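Need tokens for this chain, all 122 residues.
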Amino acid sequence: LNLCVGKSFTGAHLTICGVFGQPTYRKLQYKYQHVPGRAVLHLGRQRHGADNIATGERINLIVWNRSSSLRLLTPRERPTHGKEPPDLVCLSYTHDNDYEDHKPLPPGVISRRERLRRAGGG
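Here are the structure tokens for all 122 residues:
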């Protein structure tokens, strides 16, 4: 649940992409514009991300639930998103190892691959 509590702002859409484990995982499904006093509810497996706030300030109340059945799966048992080319708005430099295969990193950002390598995980 994502409730926009208030303030005045522009931008800051919620980008909704596909569902984890489906071929459309990194394909744009919908752009939601937050409005103070309204909420949006989506699956936790629904890939999503907040776009940058252009002006002003936004306050949101976020309520998460967790899927214990998905978390019990080993990495090899978890579904993958396949190798379909992603919609660029559905890419995340914090989550996608192949981000740089599709677009350049923002200035000052260290790639996910490099962060994992430094942490000893890849």
